[in-house]
Design a protein that fits this description.
By secondary structure, this protein is an alpha+beta fold. It is built from 9 helices and 21 strands. Helix content is about 25%, strand content about 35%. A 6-stranded mixed β-sheet has the order 7-8-9-3-10-11, sandwiched between helices. A 5-stranded antiparallel β-sheet has the order 2-1-4-5-6, with helices on one face. α2 (about 95-105) packs across α3 (about 110-125) and α2 packs parallel to α4.
């Protein structure tokens, strides 16, 4: 593959899909979004399993799909490998023969294909399983073999469709480490990772896109999107409270402070970048920065929300309190169990969420 990477444009009105994206050579792109957002359809278009009504798929100098020219290469001619949550190993073949199947189907000799298989089984630490049938493998072992099989054909592009979702929590970290090593091993190979797990995105991907209703609604480097989300779904997976409104002012005294007007409520915070009055803007803050009161708080300058508690959940020693404010439904605060008990918080109770302006980040969106 040359230096052009992956270019995809796909429009499928029947699936309400209209997506355009680029992936640079060697880049790992994570695609996140709610169920039914169009993530699977996007992968199917890239893999050649479906043809869009209008669009193209280009990988390096090769055109895989072009609806204007009538080009639609079949999946096996695309130089693309897919690793899904189900390993889908051939049950009648040994592990070695599963991995050798791809090279053999491309005309590689039996001896050479077995050598390729053994090399990849060694790379994924699965040599000891080479002569075993797939039925004897655990989920993590089978997924390592599936990865070896996907890479044995030396693909230009690797598609990863929820590859860790079926693995036990104690197996997934090792698989992520292995995937990261493999993805960084070939500097020109692109990868597209579809996942619901933000841990997959932040440990494996360079960049991410958020897809909703068949459209890309946010994209950028992983660290940027996770720290400064502009979309409610992105904020939710980043574990942040997000309020969207209009920038009303920017102050210059002390730390640079600005105000985002959300309906009739003003949220003050520290400005990131340039904030233009009357332009769309967002305010974000961590649930850990929120203090909860039973009566209206006073003291230092704060953003105070009147909230009706809708949910109280345990998050491994921290209690997540979720509530609806008139201008901000779904706000969250993280408290200790002792604080929840002391405040006597219950579902339906009205409380006050307060967050200092210095804990809020405001920026254009």
């Amino acid at each position: 593959m040359d230096s052009d990477g992956l270019s995809v444009s796909a429009r499928i009105p029947a699936r309400d899909l209209d997506i355009h994206l680029e992936v640079a050579p060697g880049e790992v792109l994570a695609v996140l979004g709610p169920n039914g957002a169009g993530k699977s359809s996007l992968l199917q278009v890239i893999a050649g399993l479906i043809t869009p009504d209008k669009g193209h798929v280009r990988l390096g100098s090769r055109t895989l799909t072009d609806t204007t020219k009538g080009i639609a290469l079949p999946p096996h001619r695309r130089g693309v490998s897919l690793l899904a949550q189900d390993p889908l190993l051939f049950p009648h073949l040994t592990v070695r023969d599963n991995v050798a199947f791809g090279p053999r189907s491309r005309g590689t000799t039996h001896r050479a294909a077995r050598t390729i298989a053994d090399n990849w089984l060694k790379a994924v630490d699965a040599t000891e399983f080479a002569d075993r049938p797939p039925a004897t493998l655990s989920g993590g072992q089978a997924q390592r073999v599936a990865l070896a099989r996907a890479l044995a054909v030396d693909p230009d592009l690797l598609l990863l469709d929820e590859p860790m979702s079926a693995l036990d929590v104690d197996v997934a970290p090792a698989m992520r480490t292995l995937l990261r090593a493999v993805l960084r091993d070939e500097p020109t190979r692109c990868a597209v990772l579809v996942t619901h797990d933000i841990i997959d995105a932040i440990t494996l991907a360079d960049r991410l896109v958020i897809v909703e209703a068949g459209r890309i609604v946010e994209e950028g480097p992983v660290a940027e999107v996770m720290s400064h989300p502009r979309n409610p779904f992105a904020a939710r997976i980043a574990g942040l409270n997000l309020l969207r409104g209009t920038a009303s002012k920017q102050l210059t005294e002390g730390p640079t402070l600005g105000t985002v007007q959300v309906d009739d409520f003003a949220v003050d915070g520290c400005v990131i970048g340039e904030l233009r009055p009357e332009s769309p803007a967002a305010a974000v803050f961590s649930p850990a920065a929120v203090s909860v009161f039973r009566t209206t708080p006073g003291g230092s300058p704060r953003n105070v929300f009147t909230v009706d508690i809708t949910e109280i959940t345990d998050r491994g020693g921290i209690v997540r309190v979720r509530g609806d404010a008139p201008q901000a439904p779904g706000l969250c605060a993280d408290l200790t169990p002792a604080a929840v008990a002391q405040l006597q918080l219950t579902l339906g109770a009205q409380v006050y969420f307060a967050v200092k302006a210095t804990e809020v980040r405001v920026y254009a969106c």
